[in-house]
Amino acid sequence: MPGSLIFHPPLSVHSIRNDKRKGHLILQFSHKLLSLLDNSQEGVLLPAGELHRQGIVQLQENSPAWNCIQKLLTDVPTLTLPVPKGMHEITGYPFSEGLRLNAHTLSLLSSLLDAGLIRPEYTNSLPIRLEEMQLLINRLVTHPEEKLSMEEAAAFTHMSYSNFCRSFKLMLGYSYVDFCNMIRVRRAQELLQNSNKSVTEISALLNFGSVSYFNRIFKKITGCTPLSYRASRH
């Protein structure tokens, strides 16, 4: 609805369905943004209050956060989806535009902090290797059939096992196992809809271990069995 604000955990897979509005404002924060506030601290911003309880909050018109978003809408470049062929990403902004967008973004974060909708959590004692974590996420998303254990994932990001477990959940909002299952189920949905592979073949291809486990995880995430999902798409 107009004025709604939705936050997604960083690096998480998400989509917007059944939304007939003509446009959305998507803010993608660089992990370096907080360094503009305090170079001596490293931290993350987590949802709080109503945003934490419901996952969405409707902003009141002319509230501080609302006004910040209107300023962002005025200055942020427009990107039409799907992206035209040959244009894959926005590589950067002129210095003056980037400075203005940073100022608006920090004002928005400040207003959300004042409203009790987000809270900071400092991670000086929790060394998160963001670049390695991004590479890991890319690997999981592009190769969902690869069964990478948590120990192997921790080694891939050059983190200890315990630090990796905590960091992954903190950054994405999912445990490592739940995230991997979600990615594999998303791939299974594509195969069920666009291929003639059987449920057994898809389960084996995505390394679920057994068809019964595949059915259980698929239903847990989607609310239906693989066969009923395929039937509903044909």
What does this structure look like?
The chain is mainly α and 234 residues long. It has 2 domains: 4-122, no CATH class; 130-232, Orthogonal Bundle (Arc Repressor Mutant, subunit A). It is 49% helix and 7% strand. The chain has 10 helices and 4 strands, in the order ββαβααβααααααα. The strands form 2 sheets. The protein has a two-stranded antiparallel sheet with strand order 1-3. The protein has a two-stranded antiparallel ribbon with strand order 2-4. Helix 5 (150-156) packs across helix 6 (161-172), helix 7 packs across helix 9 (211-222) and helix 7 packs across helix 10 (226-232).
C-alpha-based Rg, rounded: 20 Å
Biggest pleated-sheet summary: 2 strands, antiparallel
Total E-strand runs: 4
Order of helices and strands: EEHEHHEHHHHHHH
* Structural class assignment: mainly alpha
Number of domains: 2
Lateral strand order in the biggest sheet = 1-3
Binned, the helix content reads 40-55%
Runs in which pLDDT lies below 50 for 5 or more consecutive residues are none
Whole-number mean pLDDT: 78
The rounded distance between the terminal residues' Cα atoms is 31 Å
Instruction: Describe the global form.
Output: globular
The count of helical stretches stands at: 10
* Beta content: 5-15%
